[in-house]
Amino acid sequence: MSALYFFLLVTLLVTDISCRGLNREKKKDRQLFLSRHVVADGKEFDGGVLVDEDGIISGVYTRDTLKDLSLENDATLQVIDGGRWALMAGAVDSHVHVNEPGRTEWEGFATATKAAAVGGITTLVDMPLNSIPPTTTVENLKVKASTAKEEIFIDVAFWGGIIPGNENQLLNMIKAGVIGFKGYLIDSGIEEFPNVEETELDAILTTLNGSDIVLAFHTEAPYGDGKNCDNCDPILYSTYLASHPPEMELKAASILAKYIPKYDVRVHVVHVSAAGVIPILERIREERIKAGSTRWRGGVTAETCHHYLTFSSEQIPPGHTEFKCSPPIRNLTNKEKLWDYIRDQRLDLIASDHSPSVASLKGPNFMTAWGGISSVQFGLSLFWTEAKARGYSLSTVSHYLSSGPAHLIGMQNKKGAIRPGLDADLVFFDPNASFVVTPDIIAYKNKLSPYMYRVLNGKVMQTYLRGQLIYSNGEVSEKPQGQLLINEDVVFKL
Hints:
Layout: H1 3-14, E1 30-40, E2 43-51, E3 57-62, H2 63-66, E4 77-81, E5 86-89, E6 91-96, H3 109-118, E7 121-126, H4 138-148, E8 155-161, H5 167-176, E9 180-184, H6 201-208, E10 214-218, H7 237-243, H8 246-259, E11 266-270, H9 277-290, E12 300-305, H10 306-310, H11 332-343, E13 349-351, H12 379-389, H13 394-408, E14 426-436, E15 455-465, E16 468-472, E17 475-476, H14 488-491
Parallel strand pairs: 1-4, 1-5, 6-7, 7-8, 8-9, 9-10, 10-11, 11-12, 12-13
Antiparallel strand pairs: 1-2, 2-3, 5-14, 14-15, 15-16, 16-17
């Protein structure tokens, strides 16, 4: 046995990585995370990740190169060995509706970020609507950030909102640290967050032209007369599906495609459901790149969500409105086309679109029930369940759930990968474990889920935020360790 392996063995005997360590103050020692299955930068190997005293990754090593580090006499080194658990970058969920303040009974920062930590998410981005007030001014951002400040168990960033007439607020919100802006071309369903009209897009894009900020849109636009099924049964999912045909998404994408070439603005399409959206965006991306754009993916990107990759419309029973979302879950052929896009890297990232509500807003009527699916806790397992069945590796999971969203929000040099210089946001994930989704394991506030009693493959075993253990063995740390990823000097000076 080499001196290094003897040292590591002895260290492991005295290193406490159980949940008893969750509530201790942050250690200042360096850390060495070991795994037989490190997932880093598209590679998977037996090795380790060295983390400095500030929780920043200082080195990534194979097991062989670890022998050259001369760590045997380093008494300040804490060794955490996950064995055969995969060691992955923490997931970044760029699309989460936390709803606090104003609709805290739907979801709050404490419950949402605890659930995220259980699910291996180390950074989430809160959407600007569903809370009261919505994040459409710096003053409103301050209200939301003040509410979140002492409650977050993982790092939290914020989207700003685009509504009619708030163009004069956008630059100040950028200075305050929002990662981008979200808008609608159709009624959002939230009175405090009205949609913009196509005639307002020039003013919005002119204001943001040349900035590094991303402009995201819910890609549905009004289509037809809205009377797709006057006498249909509202208990049937097919009735709701007919009211949101794919043409609504295609029309919205086509509207954006007319404006994108005129401006140097990053444009992102959230929660793509209809597969036909992607070719429309790809044509505009190719034009951008040919014109010399050096932005990530030509500054034209798109996401889809776990529910579109897991379910098809044929599976949804009558009256089960926990499946309702907007855009809707479409048929099996459409679902498999989205998986083709995953295979060919024609999509850029996957997000949860965690959009919870209280049970009283659901009920059996698909036409009146609140549209939103809760899943922030289960994203890694949801994607791995489907991806593993299709023969994909954990590198694919990390690409779409960590690296892609980190690039979207402009934090690729801080989050989303195992690489020197980035935050040591790490997850030990057992790809061979399985579990059943039951109400007692759900950490978010309202226990409504279309995944209830479903068997999922892959389980998050431990979650680390900047090297600090925040989740292990069913227990989340008592003390919130998260940070607000905003310019607090600007926000809290108001």
